[in-house]
Amino acid sequence: MPYSVRWSQLKILLRRLPLDTAGVFGPSTASLPTRRVRQVISRRFWKRYPAPVRLLARPLIRLLWLIVCPIRAIHDRPRPWRTSTLLRQIWQGWRSGIRPWDQQLTSSSVFSGLSDREAAIFWANLAKLEDRRLALNKPALSEKLAGCGLPVPTTLAILGEDQVKALRDWPWQTPVFIKLAAGSAAQGVMAVFPAAEENNLLFISDGSPLPEQVSAATARSRLAALARNGRVLIQEFLHPAEDLRTPFPGCTPELRLTTARYPGGPARVIAAFAKIQAPQAYTTTSLSGALIVPINPETGTMGLGQFLHSPGAGLTTVPWSGASLSGLHLPDYAEAVQLVEQGSTLLPSLAVIGWDVLLTDCGPVILEANSRLSSLMINLWSDATGTPSPLPPYVEAWLKAAESGALDSPS
Is-contact 209 284, C-beta < 8 A? Predict the structure, then answer.
């Protein structure tokens, strides 16, 4: 129905406020140096639209944020809460544009007072539109990576909703990994394996790590439900490297390798961490349930592990296997670094890229690239070891390029 479509779009808009990260009074109310970042984000965001649209839309967005900020602050207030804290968060949200529920997610290693969301939007807004679109289009990027001779998962099919409904059987007789072709945060991810019983399948869905035995018809039905959200990508399931099966049983370890470049320069890996899932949690690829282990980006040596629900609680061993973490060197780490640095040449205007790489029995395999990155996660190794963050010189270089207009040339 037209009304429901308009309402769903409005809800998305309200969730994304403030769109340009500026508060009610605009980006100039922030203190330096965060003011420079917000001004760059705001200018590059609004330059996409013609002047008449900017004239009307900008004050409307500010007015919406004036209303939405206190509503969300009250709705998301912690338990217990204090009125003084709530009022301070609302005022900060109005003044700085940092959403009340994000005000604890700041990255002092980049700029004092800059929220993690602002840092992510800053990096994404620097790039040219075609590079941002390519990074978001998983099948297209995978095809380009493969064309450069870089290892990627084998794509078995890319199906729309009608194509999924047309399936008469479960056509894949080997383990498969399924996700939205343009999804994020592992929403709707599935893994499906042939079961011992004939015509049955072992099915694992996002958020439900235990395998469930289902019929082929049930698996098709769930695939169709996922396809209502967009095209689905069916890939060959990748098994873990032999050397990693004992310390990390029942999962294929995933690396997040962050590359950074100066304007016009080559990319190099500046940060790394591993996502280690509990046994058989094949689809919980979001960070929320994983053991996160910072890695020395120069050597590939692991540090202490932590869960995001208890940050700072350094773990020396893997909870479910007892294997030592600290000092463990990951096999094929140097090869993975070389792969993503080479892959970064396909996205030349992306200042910072988060590459997801699986450590498989066939060697490192590139899953995808991410352009909206958490500075908190990039700084895991530097925060854990007390070493300087690698980000500030890159932020400064890209700020100067944006302020000088060097990034405004046509694609």
Answer: yes
